Predict the 3D structure of the following.
Amino acid sequence: MIGSLAGIIALKSPPALMLEVGGVGYELEAPMSTFYTLPAVGQSARLLTHLVVREDAQLLYGFGSVAERALFRNLLKVSGVGPRIALAILSGVTVAAFAQCIQAQDVSTLTRIPGIGRKIAERLIVEMRDRLVAGADPHAGTAQALAPVGAEAEAYSALVALGYKPAEAVRLLKSAGSGGSTEDLIRRALQSAARE
């Protein structure tokens, strides 16, 4: 899997962009929240990525932050939500605002996002409630609650990819203690889970 790309921006045409890395142009799609933070064409940039493999295509999506990519991946797990809707959500609201909508069960704000009808908004509220970290302050630190920084962020993403719910991943990382490489954190977290 391609986890990130660093290179020169060759093309910006929202939602598509091309990042040239070592002479190879990678076509990506990105939410508007990422586009707002990108430098001009010809400048260097680094994006976190998510690869979607389908029968007829391999699609690469780019994100400016760990929190955006984590939310995108969680949205894909919701029944009826594909990459297009997930991109629309990230383009329509920030990670923190989305968490607030879910916690407040605010269907009307979600339905203002293009492509989100009432049924999908209600499904998002029901299914995403468990995926957001319990007890996160909706006004501050939601992005950090969804995705810690550094080695902890990578360990968190790995645990979620292994099938742990975000709240479980956070709990396992807390029991693993701080410090060490990503691999050390994952190993200690999995050992903690095995002892339970």
